UniProtKB/TrEMBL annotation:
Keyword Calcium assigned: no
The protein's name: Cytochrome c domain-containing protein
Keyword Cell division: no
Top-level division of the source organism's lineage: Bacteria
Length: 423
């Protein structure tokens, strides 16, 4: 079939041609927006899940919903080596610019922008790691200026304490949104990478906003251990946010993700082809797109058959091995790779059941969490000696600890990939 007409899109954060299986999440967010518009209290939202399940795509779609309701919006991607101060300032600057044309008091907008500029320029107090960035980095920070064409004001959101400053800044932004009868939504991807102080500050700000019923919400997305990260910062975070786990697609949604865009190109799938594609992809959205794209390119005609899928599967798997799995594996040091290989060997022991196979999916779609003590035992090492490798892998986003004393891969199929690689 014509590869130019291939509708599938296996890209990082790239919206698939058919956003299947996420209707509930979209409906919930619509309710959140409507409740806030009516002055009802609502919680900020946290999306959690493994890599490849479409968290970023869903985050962008939720942002589009907010924009369609004339909300001011901004989005950032958290980084472990960067304070949240300047990215949040940029996101709120964008959000307020969206609201400004509808505001009747330009002076009110300028006053907020002055506070925003002061917030952005206020450096956090020196802490561990500050000196390591070097004098050149300090000079670069000193020269940096936000693109805000009003003078910075003092006395509001500029204390240098991120918790105090975020509370004041978010409150002021919410007041601007209330003036025009709408709201502000800040979207944060890779939220588990925020530093402890930034997480604490965000929790405090969201807590204050929820008590005031202010029209500003934070929508975060992160790996499965994001709730634990938030809880470690503020104990009340368990009640502060609405958590939604984003998982693999069920069979009906996975078939829809393949068949709906194909039908628009007048292409059909045989049932056995869909059976095999679900077996290969495990229902993970990224893999559905990857196998769908390869199958389309190899299928000579419609309807697509199981034989077409078998011919195409090696190409899809080779691409995943390089771009999805291999790139992550290459980031690991030899000690970290040894740790992950031990995890892979232990994660499918007899009786270990991945948490998402209850619906009858392929058993090795996701590797079970394994005990850190078992990993140490399998390597003939003391658990304490493996802590540096474990902590580095968590920081790199390759594994996560959902429960104390256990670890699991953040990437579906990663254990299976490692088990096929030579030592």
């Amino acid at each position: 079939m014509d590869p130019v007409r291939n509708p599938y899109a296996p890209g990082a954060g790239q919206r698939p041609p058919e956003l299947a299986g996420r209707g509930r999440e979209l409906e919930v967010f619509d309710i959140v927006l409507e409740r806030i518009a009516r002055g009802r209290p609502e919680r900020s939202l946290m999306l959690t899940g493994l890599r490849g399940v479409g968290k970023t795509v869903l985050l962008n779609t939720l942002r589009s919903q907010a924009i369609n309701r004339l909300w001011g919006t901004g989005k950032i991607e958290a980084r472990p080596d960067q304070s949240i101060r300047r990215p949040v300032a940029a996101a709120l600057h964008m959000a307020i610019r969206e609201l400004a044309p509808r505001h009747r008091a330009p002076d009110r907008i300028d006053a907020f922008l002055g506070v925003l500029k002061a917030f952005a320029l206020r450096s956090a107090p020196a802490g561990p790691g500050t000196a390591a960035r070097g004098a050149a980095g300090s000079r670069l920070r000193d020269r940096w200026q936000p693109g805000i064409d009003v003078p910075a004001t003092s006395g509001r959101a500029d204390s240098g304490d991120i918790e105090i400053d975020l509370v004041e800044l978010f409150t002021d932004a919410a007041d601007v949104a209330a003036d025009v009868g709408t709201g502000v939504a800040v979207f944060i991807d890779e939220m588990q990478d925020l530093g402890p102080e930034d997480v604490s500050g965000l929790c405090a700000a969201c807590h204050e906003l929820s008590q005031l019923g202010a029209p500003l919400i934070v929508v975060g997305a992160g790996l499965p251990h994001l709730p634990a990260v938030l809880s470690a910062a503020k104990s009340y975070s368990e009640r502060l946010f609405r958590y939604q786990r984003i998982d693999r697609l069920d069979r009906i949604a996975a078939d829809q993700a393949l068949c709906a865009p194909a039908a628009r190109e007048e292409v059909e799938y045989e049932q056995k082809a869909l059976d095999l594609l679900y077996e290969k992809s495990g229902g993970y959205p990224y893999f559905v797109q990857a196998y769908g794209k390869a199958t389309w390119d190899h299928a000579p005609r419609t309807p697509v058959t199981a034989a077409d899928v078998r011919v195409a599967a090696p190409e899809a798997e080779a691409e995943l091995a390089v771009g999805f799995f291999g790139s992550r594996f290459e980031r690991a040091t030899p000690a970290e790779r040894e740790y992950m290989r031990a995890m892979a060997g232990l994660s499918l022991v007899e009786g270990a059941t991945p948490p998402d196979v209850a619906d009858g999916g392929p058993r090795d779609d996701m590797d079970a969490a394994v005990s850190t003590a078992e990993i140490a035992r399998s390597l003939g090492r003391k658990p304490a000696s493996l802590s540096p490798a474990r902590d580095a892998l968590i920081k790199k986003g390759l594994i996560y600890s959902g429960e104390r004393g256990t670890v699991a891969f953040t990437v579906p199929h990663f254990g299976r990939y490692l088990r096929t690689q030579p030592a």
